[in-house]
Amino acid sequence: MHDVAQNRTPGDRDDLCPGLILRVSEQGAKSFSVIYRVLGEGGITDTGRPLTGKQHRITLGRWPVVSLGDARERARSILAKSGAGADPRAELASSVRERGANTFSAVLERHIRQDAARTISSWPNVERVLRLHVVPHLGDTPIADIRLTYSNWPSIS
Fold it and tell me: Which end of the chain has fewer CB atoms surrounding its CB within 10 Å, N or C?
């Protein structure tokens, strides 16, 4: 795989990072993936040697949003973890769950249960406005991704 992913064909493999591939859709969209096996997932031989399990694939992102250098770095990290016997998919799943626990809606619900109703006398009105005008726009958005600017604030009419 060259430093530029522009003229690559489906399934191109990277000579500098074994397991890293470039996938190209029929429409021409290109994305990086890493193919790996987890050491020990396939059991253990009679001599005690761990076997690799079945092949897994994780998509790292679309090119050019994810550069070849970034894809190599992510792939090497995944390959190192799988070579040590850890399944990177479990880590990805926990980060997805963690992001879900910190969405605007989830944080709002925790705030309501813990503080808001007791400390803000006008809370019923505030809660109504939030649920009516803010939650529909930001409800599933992770808190870390929310950036408030005048241009992206929905108009309330």
Answer: C
> DSSP letter string over 65-83?
TS-HHHHHHHHHHHHHHHH
Dist. CA 106–CA 143, nearest whole Å: 9
Q: What is the DSSP letter of 38?
A: -
If residue 101 lies in a helix (H) or strand (E), which one and from where to where?
helix 88-101
SS3 128: helix
Q: Residue 125: what pLDDT?
A: 84
C-beta separation of 17 from 70 below 8 A: no
Where do the domains of the chain lie? 12-86, 104-152
Model pLDDT for residues 47-76, shown as the tens digit of each residue: 777 666 788 888 888 888 888 888 899 899
Q: 34, 28 in Cβ contact below 8 A?
A: no
**Phi, then psi, of 66 in degrees rounded to 5:** -100, 120
The dotted CATH code for 12-86 is: 3.30.160.390
To 10 degrees, what angle do helices 88-101 and 68-83 make? 110
> Mean pLDDT, the chain, as a whole number?
76
Write down the pTM of the prediction: 0.51
